[in-house]
Amino acid sequence: MGTFDILFYHFFNHFKLKKNKKANSIATFYVSFLQCSLLLLLGVFFAKFFRKMHMDTMSADKAWTLFVLVVIFIFFKNWMYYGGRKRKVLNAKMIKNKKLTYNIYMLWFLPVVILALTLVLLQAV
């Protein structure tokens, strides 16, 4: 079981008590948003690195188009992956760890920090 599966499970259990019908959607959105923000951070890092190394690998328009296509793929993949059966399997595996070990506000703050780091890296020369 991976890191994103554990984060999905914690989000799902947290919001299952408060918003029963939307818990799966919220948890899926969070995991997708976190994966997309990490992808953006890596993309900006490698774009700056390749620019400093004077390598012309891809134009900016093509890179943004590729990023949008990958984001759509990530959202669709997570929607299918965490649909019904996978969530039940996660529930069975994590049933012994009922206690949430992560602070939910810190988990929401994580993608914001990643996006802020991406903006700082994007502004760097």
H and E order: HHHHH
Overall geometry comes to elongated
> How many structural domains can be distinguished in the coordinates?
1
Structural class: mainly alpha
Proportion of helical residues = over 70%
Number of strands: 0
**Biggest sheet statistics:** none
SSE blueprint and pairings:
Blueprint: H1 3-18, H2 23-52, H3 60-81, H4 85-93, H5 104-123
Helix pairs in contact: 1-2, 2-3, 2-5
Jot down its keywords.
single chain; mainly alpha; elongated; membrane; transmembrane; DUF4271 domain-containing protein; transmembrane helix
Protein architecture, described:
The chain crosses the membrane at residues 26-51, 63-81, 102-122. This is DUF4271 domain-containing protein. It comes from Algibacter lectus. Keywords: Membrane, Transmembrane, Transmembrane helix. The protein is mainly alpha-helical and 125 residues long. The chain has one domain (3-14, 25-123). It contains five helices and no strands. The chain has helices spanning 3-18, 23-52, 60-81, 85-93, 104-123. Helix 1 (3-18) packs antiparallel against helix 2 (23-52), helix 2 (23-52) runs antiparallel to helix 3 and helix 2 packs parallel to helix 5 (104-123). The model has no long low-confidence stretch (mean pLDDT 85).
